Amino acid sequence: MRTLLLIVISILLLPLVVRPAIASEIWIFAIFGLALNLLLGYTGMLSFGQSTFFGSAAYVAGWLLKHYGINVFAALGVGVGVGALSALLVGYLCVQRSGLYFIMLTFALNQLFYFIAYQWTSVTGGEDGMPGIPRPSVLGLSIQESYWYYAFISLLFLLSLWAMKRIVESPLGKILQAIRENEVRAEAVGYDVPRFKLLAFVIAGAFSGLAGVLYAMLFGIVPLEAIGFVVSGNVVFATLIGGSGSLYGPIIGSFVFIWLSESVSTMWARWPLLLGVAFVIVVLFLRGGVVEAWTRFWTWRSSKQTG
Amino acid sequence: MNLLLGQILNGIATGMLYALMGLGLSLITGVLNIPNFAHGALFAVGAYLLVSVVGVLGNFWLGLIVAPIGVALLGLVIEWAGVRRLYAAGHDYQLLFTFGLALILNELIIVIWGPVGISHLPPALLRGGVDLGFTFYPKYRLFVMGMAGALVVLTWLFLEKTKYGAIMRAGIENKEMVSLLGIDIQMLFTVAFALGAYLAGIAGALTAPIRGLSPGMGVDMLGIAFVVVALGGLGNLLGAIAAGLLIGVAQAVVAAYWTEASTAVIFAVMAAVLLVRPQGLFGIR
Question: In whole angstroms, what is the distance from residue A297 CA to residue B46 CA?
Answer without folding.
Answer: 44
